[in-house]
Write a structure and sequence with these properties.
heterodimer; A: alpha/beta; Rossmann fold; 27 helices; about 50% helix; extended; B: alpha/beta; 2 domains; two-stranded antiparallel ribbon
C-alpha cells in the first residue's frame, strides 16, 4: 500500500484494546493505517516512562506532526523515537519538546519540510549520544542554523530552494556525534556552509561525509589524541626506549562502525589507529599518548620475542589461546624491562568478573582467556578458579628462569585448552563483554600456514602501478590555507607540486647581462661598499671599546723599562663577513605576459622579459657577494595544482644550467601566493643563517580561479608571511602592480616596495637587495 | 723553581678500568708519546688522565681551553712588578720544565692558531721556544702532553688540523657498558646498585635519541649527578628529571618521551 494515501477503510475507525488508548487514538485524529498498526506498542513504551500530563503533551505533539501533510513517516518516527529521546535526556521531555516542535515548525514553514523525517528518525540516536537536554538543544540549533544558511533564494528574500545538505547532515548526525563534541560538530558544519554554501552537489557530498575535505575537517575536530600530533613523540619513544623504529601508519577509526580495525604490523610498517581517546578505567585515566605507547610497546615485544608458529593443525580456539598466552608472555617481558608499563597495561586491560559468563547458555572461551590474561599480568587479580591459578603458576614458572619461547608458551596454551574445554564453547552466542584488549595487535605475524587457507586474505598484496600513473616530478606537498572568516586553517587544502624548471639557452642570459654591462659596473661599485655583518675583534687601537689587557701590560712594561710605550692599548669590534640566505620567489602568472606601457620602453618588452633581466642581474650581484641564494617560480591553477618551479637551489652554482632554466622562464595561470610562500619558506627556514630573506617579486595580488572572494587569498598570504616571520624568515615583496598600495601593505606590512615604473626593474631589484642587506 | 708537589694527584681517583687503556697508556707514557683522548662529554676522559697521573706518580697540569685563549696563555708572559718586569711561565712551559703531564682539556675550543704552539713539543724535538723571552725550553724527561677532544660536535669549525692530529696517539672513549656504568655510579655515589642500574637504563634511552633531536646523550657525569641527588634523599623520578632530562633538551617531545622512560623505569607503585 503506498503511504500517504488514505485507505478505503478509515484508520480512524480502528478499535484499540484499552479504552484509554482508544481515547488517545481519537485525540490523535489520524487516518494512517501504518500508524494504527503500531500505535498500541508505541504507547506501551511511552507509558512506562511518562506521567499522565506528559502523555497528553506527547499525543498533542504527535497530532500536530500527523497533520503536517508529510504522510505517516514523520509521525511514525516521532511516536517510536520520542520516548527514547526523552529517556536519554534524563526522562524529562519538558524542556525538550517545545524545542523539537519549534524546529519542526521552522522546517515546515521553509522549503525544507522533507528534512523533518530524517530529523525525527535520527533524533533518538543523537539523544543517546548526547545524554542531556542542553546538548540536544545545541544540536537542534546547529541543524537549524545549517538549514537557514543553506536554503537558497532566487528572487530577493523568499527562500525557494531547500537546503541540499540538511537531510544528509541529519542522517549522518548520530555518527558525527560519536566522533565529535557539539562544538566540533558546529565547526564542521560551519566549514561546510562557508565553503560549499553555493554549490549544492558538493554540499551534499560534504554533509554526507563523501568528500575528502569533509573527512579532513572531521579528523581535525575530533576529540582525543590525534596520531598526527604525537607521531614524532611516538617515533622518539620507539627509538629511546626500545631501539626500534619503523614506519608508523595510521588507519582510520572514524568510518568503520561495524568492525573496528585492530593494530597490527607487517613488513610495511606498524599500523595504529588515527586517534585515541583517553581511557577512563577503574584504575585511573590513561592518556591517549600512553595508549599509543602501550600499543607500540606490545608490537615491539612481538618483534623481539615472538617467533611465528605453524598453525595449520591448530583449531581457531587453540590459536586464540596461544595468542592470549603469548601476548601475556611478551608483556611480562616488557614489564621486566620497564616496570612502569605494568600500570598502563593493567589500566587498559579489562577485568572480567569471575561470574559474568553463564557457561550453560553462552560460549565462555573468550571470558576465560581474558580472565587468565588478567591473572597472568596482575598479581592482585583475586580470581579463585583452581585451574586458572594452576596455569598462572605454571606460566610464571616457565618465565621465571628465562624468556621462555613462543613454542614453549604455545604448548602451555594447548594444555590449557585441553584442560578447560567445554561443550558450550561451540555455541554461537559468545560472551564478548570485557574480553577485548584493545592495545594488543591482531597477531597476524604469529602464524604461518603451510597450506594457503581460505580465510586469510592478502591485504598487503603489492599494488601494481596503473599504466597512466607514472610519477611526474615530486609527489605533491599539501599545505593548509588560512580561512580568515572562521580563523582556522583548512587542513591539507593546497597541493604544491615541485618540479625542475625547463631549460632554455643559457647564452640568452649572458646576452642580457652584456646588455646591462654599464649597470653591472655601477652595481659592482656599490657591492664593494656593502658592509659585512659579523662581529670581529680588532686590537691595537688607540681608542676603542675595551682595554686590551695584554697590550696594556706590555705598554706599561715598556714604559717602566724606559722604552717608548705603545699607546694602542685598546680594542674594538667591527663587523666582518655576511651570513645571509636569500630565496627569490617569482610570480609566474599569466599577467606577466603583458607588455609594459611606459614611455621609456619603446621596444615593447613584456613584464616577464623585464623580470628575467632583473633576476639575472640580481643573481649575478648576489653571486658576487657570495651570499647563498635560491630562485624559484610559482603559479597556480586552483588549489589542486600549485606549481613550484625550481630554478636555482642554495647549493647550486650560478652557472649555465641555472642560467638555462632562467632563460626558459615562461608565464601562465594564476597567483596562489600563500602556498608558494609556505613552500619556499620551508626551504629557507631549514637554512643555517643569521638572516633569512624571502624576496617575492610579483605583479599583482593573490588570486586564483577557484576562489570567488578576493579577501580570502590575501588573508591567507598575510598569514603565511606571519608564519614565516615566526620561523625567522623575513619576507619582502617587490610589487610591479601600480595599484598594489591597496593590498600589499595588508599582506606584507612595511616590508614591501611598489615599483611604479616597471622598466626600471632591472636596475632597482639588485639595489633593493643591497639596501635590504646593508 | 715551581713547587712540583702542588700538581701531584694525592688521592687515588676512582676509575673503573674498561679495557686495556691503562696498560696502553703506560706504554705510551713510557715512550713519552703525546696522547689524545676522544669521546663524548662526561664519559670519563679527564678522570682517566687524573687516574693515570696518580698511578704514574707524575704531577698533572690541566688547562681548560677556550676560545679566547692565546698562545701566551699557554706559554707565559711578562708581568709587572715593583722592580720592572718578571717573566711568568704559562702552564705548558711549567709542565715542560718540571716534567709534568700537561693536559689540554677540550682542545678544539681553542682557536687553531693557538694550538700550533704545542707542535714543537710533540715531535722529536721536545722543545718549547719562548720567543718573547728568547729562551728555548728543553722538555723535562718526564714531560708528556695529553689533549682531550670531543668529536661529537657537528660544527665544521671545531675540528683539529690534520697537522695537529697526526702528532698524537689516541684513545677512543665511550660510555661504559650498562652493568659497568651502574657499578661506576654506585661506587661513585654510594647508592644501591639496582637504583644505579635503573638510572643507566634511563640514560641509555636518551642516548638512543642521539642524532634524532639530541646532540649528545646523557653522560655518565649526569647520571652521577642524579645519583648524588638520590643519595641526598631526592625521589628518584624527580632526580632523573632534574639531572638527566632537563639539562640536555628544550624539545617538548623529547622531554615527554624521556619523562615517560623515567616513569616506566621507576614504577610509581611497584606491584
Amino acid at each position: 500500500m503506498p503511504t500517504g494515501i488514505r485507505p478505503v477503510t478509515d484508520a480512524r475507525q480502528r478499535q484499540m484494546a484499552h479504552p484509554q488508548v482508544q481515547a488517545w487514538w481519537q485525540a490523535l485524529d489520524c487516518g494512517f493505517a501504518p500508524v494504527a498498526d503500531v500505535f498500541e506498542e508505541c504507547l506501551d513504551e511511552a507509558l512506562s516512562s511518562f506521567s499522565r500530563a506528559q502523555m497528553e503533551a506527547y499525543i498533542e505533539a504527535a497530532r500536530f506532526i500527523g497533520k503536517l501533510g508529510r504522510g505517516p513517516e514523520p509521525l511514525l518516527a516521532f511516536l517510536e523515537e520520542w520516548p527514547a529521546v526523552a529517556a536519554a535526556a534524563s526522562g524529562d521531555q519538558e524542556p525538550l519538546l517545545p524545542q523539537v516542535m519549534g524546529a519542526i515548525r521552522a522546517m515546515q514553514k521553509s522549503p525544507n519540510s522533507a528534512a523533518i523525517t530524517p530529523f525525527l528518525q535520527t533524533l533518538a540516536a543523537v539523544a543517546k549520544r548526547l545524554q542531556s537536554a542542553e546538548q540536544i538543544e545545541l544540536y537542534i540549533d546547529i541543524a537549524l542554523n545549517l538549514m537557514v544558511r543553506t536554503s537558497a533564494s532566487i528572487h530577493g528574500h523568499h527562500t525557494t530552494f531547500p537546503s541540499p545538505g540538511l537531510p544528509a547532515f541529519l542522517e549522518q548526525a548520530p555518527r558525527l556525534l560519536g566522533l565529535l563534541s557539539t562544538a566540533g560538530l558546529r565547526n564542521w558544519t560551519e566549514f561546510g556552509i562557508r565553503n560549499y554554501g553555493s554549490h549544492p552537489e558538493r554540499q551534499v557530498e560534504f554533509f554526507s561525509l563523501k568528500s575528502a575535505d569533509s573527512h579532513a575537517v572531521l579528523q581535525r575536530e575530533r576529540h582525543g589524541t590525534l596520531f598526527a600530533d604525537v607521531e614524532r613523540s611516538l617515533d622518539l619513544y620507539l627509538r629511546a626506549l626500545w631501539r626500534d623504529s619503523d614506519l608508523l601508519v595510521p588507519y582510520s577509526t572514524a568510518f568503520d562502525e561495524l568492525r573496528q580495525p585492530v593494530p597490527y604490523f607487517d613488513k610495511l610498517g606498524m599500523r595504529v589507529p588515527d586517534v585515541f581517546d583517553d581511557a577512563h578505567g577503574p584504575a585511573g585515566i590513561v592518556s591517549g599518548l600512553n595508549r599509543y605507547r602501550a600499543v607500540l610497546a606490545h608490537m615491539v615485544g612481538h618483534r623481539r620475542w615472538s617467533t611465528a608458529q605453524i598453525a595449520d593443525n591448530w583449531s581457531p580456539f587453540q590459536r586464540m589461546a596461544v595468542e592470549f598466552f603469548e601476548d601475556c608472555r611478551i608483556e611480562t617481558l616488557l614489564i621486566r624491562e620497564y616496570p612502569g608499563l605494568r600500570r598502563i597495561f593493567l589500566a587498559l586491560h579489562p577485568q572480567p568478573r569471575q561470574d559474568a559468563c553463564d557457561a550453560e547458555t553462552t560460549s565462555c572461551l573468550r571470558h576465560r582467556l581474558a580472565m587468565l590474561s588478567r591473572a597472568l599480568l596482575d598479581p592482585g587479580h583475586g580470581y579463585t578458579d583452581p585451574v586458572l591459578l594452576d596455569f598462572v603458576r605454571r606460566f610464571h614458572a616457565l618465565l621465571s628462569a628465562s624468556e621462555s619461547s613462543t613454542a614453549e608458551i604455545a604448548a602451555l596454551a594447548l594444555a590449557y585448552v585441553a584442560k578447560t574445554r567445554r561443550p558450550s564453547d561451540q555455541l554461537a552466542t559468545i560472551h564478548f563483554d570485557d574480553t577485548v584488549i584493545d592495545y594488543r595487535d591482531d597477531n597476524r605475524q604469529l602464524w604461518k600456514f603451510i597450506e594457503e587457507g581460505d580465510e586469510e586474505q592478502a591485504f598487503d598484496a603489492e599494488r601494481k602501478l596503473e599504466p597512466g600513473e607514472a610519477l611526474r616530478g615530486l609527489p605533491p606537498r599539501r599545505y593548509p590555507e588560512w580561512d580568515d572568516a572562521s580563523q582556522t586553517y583548512r587542513p591539507d587544502w593546497v597541493s604544491v607540486y615541485e618540479a625542475l624548471h625547463a631549460s632554455g639557452n643559457a647564452a640568452d642570459i649572458d646576452r642580457l647581462l652584456q646588455k646591462h654591462a654599464a649597470l653591472a659596473k655601477h652595481l659592482k661599485r656599490l657591492l664593494d661598499l656593502l658592509k659585512p655583518q659579523d662581529k670581529v675583534r680588532i686590537r691595537y687601537q688607540e681608542e676603542g671599546s675595551d682595554l686590551d689587557l695584554d697590550i696594556a701590560l706590555g705598554s706599561l712594561i715598556d714604559f717602566k723599562s724606559g722604552a717608548t710605550p705603545d699607546p694602542r692599548i685598546n680594542m674594538s669590534h667591527r663587523t666582518d663577513g655576511r651570513d645571509i640566505s636569500v630565496l627569490l620567489l617569482l610570480d609566474l602568472s599569466e599577467s606577466l605576459n603583458e607588455k609594459v606601457a611606459g614611455a621609456g620602453n619603446a621596444s615593447g618588452q613584456t613584464v616577464l622579459e623585464l623580470s628575467q633581466e632583473a633576476v639575472s642581474l640580481l643573481a649575478w650581484a648576489i653571486d658576487c657577494l657570495g651570499d647563498p641564494f635560491a630562485i624559484a617560480g610559482f603559479h597556480s591553477n586552483t588549489r589542486h595544482e600549485v606549481r613550484y618551479q625550481h630554478i636555482k637551489g642554495f647549493s647550486e652554482r650560478w652557472d649555465d644550467t641555472v642560467k638555462a632554466r632562467l632563460a626558459a622562464m615562461s608565464a601562465g595561470w594564476s597567483t596562489r601566493m600563500g602556498a608558494a610562500l609556505r613552500h619556499a619558506g620551508h626551504y629557507l627556514a631549514a637554512r643555517q643563517a643569521d638572516k633569512k630573506i624571502l624576496l617575492l617579486l610579483t605583479d599583482g595580488e593573490p588570486a586564483d580561479v577557484d576562489v570567488a572572494e578576493p579577501g580570502h587569498l590575501r588573508a591567507d598570504a598575510r598569514k603565511a608571511v606571519e608564519e614565516l616571520s615566526a620561523r625567522g624568515v623575513d619576507t619582502f615583496c617587490l610589487s610591479l602592480d601600480p595599484k598594489a598600495d591597496d593590498y600589499v601593505r595588508g599582506i606584507f606590512g612595511k616590508r614591501h616596495l611598489v615599483l611604479d615604473r616597471v622598466e626600471q626593474l632591472p636596475e632597482r631589484l639588485p639595489l633593493l637587495y643591497m639596501s635590504l642587506t646593508r | 723553581m715551581t713547587d712540583k708537589t702542588q700538581y701531584l694527584v694525592r688521592q687515588e681517583p676512582y676509575y673503573q678500568v674498561q679495557g686495556q687503556e691503562v696498560a696502553l697508556y703506560e706504554a705510551a707514557y713510557h715512550a713519552r708519546l703525546p696522547v689524545m683522548v676522544k669521546g663524548p662529554t662526561g664519559c670519563g676522559k679527564s678522570r682517566f688522565i687524573e687516574y693515570m697521573a696518580w698511578k704514574l706518580g707524575r704531577p698533572l697540569i690541566t688547562v681548560a681551553c677556550n676560545e679566547d685563549m692565546t698562545a701566551s696563555d699557554l706559554v707565559g708572559r711578562y708581568l709587572l712588578d715593583a722592580n720592572g718586569t718578571r717573566w711568568l711561565d704559562g702552564p705548558l712551559t711549567t709542565a715542560a720544565r718540571i716534567g709534568a703531564i700537561c693536559y689540554l682539556d677540550e682542545i678544539v675550543e681553542a682557536r687553531q692558531d693557538t694550538t700550533v704552539v704545542i707542535h714543537p713539543l710533540t715531535d722529536h724535538r721536545r722543545t718549547l721556544p719562548l720567543d718573547k723571552k728568547g729562551e728555548l725550553v728543553e722538555a723535562h724527561a718526564d714531560f708528556q702532553l695529553v689533549i682531550s677532544y670531543n668529536p661529537g660536535y657537528q660544527s665544521l669549525m671545531k675540528d683539529l688540523k690534520q697537522s695537529t692530529k697526526q702528532r698524537f696517539t689516541a684513545f677512543d672513549f665511550d660510555y661504559p657498558e650498562a652493568t659497568l656504568e651502574a657499578q661506576i655510579v654506585a661506587r661513585e655515589t654510594g647508592i644501591e646498585q639496582s637504583v644505579a642500574a635503573q638510572l643507566v637504563k634511563v640514560a641509555q634511552a636518551a642516548r638512543n635519541l642521539k642524532g634524532h633531536g639530541l646532540d649528545e646523550g646523557v653522560s655518565t657525569r649526569l647520571i652521577v649527578y642524579a645519583a648524588t641527588l638520590i643519595g641526598n634523599g631526592v625521589a628518584p623520578r624527580d632526580a632523573c628529571r632534574m639531572a638527566m632530562v632537563r639539562p640536555i633538551t628544550d624539545d617538548a617531545d623529547i622531554r615527554a618521551t624521556l619523562d615517560h622512560a623515567i616513569d616506566a623505569t621507576f614504577d610509581a607503585n611497584p606491584a
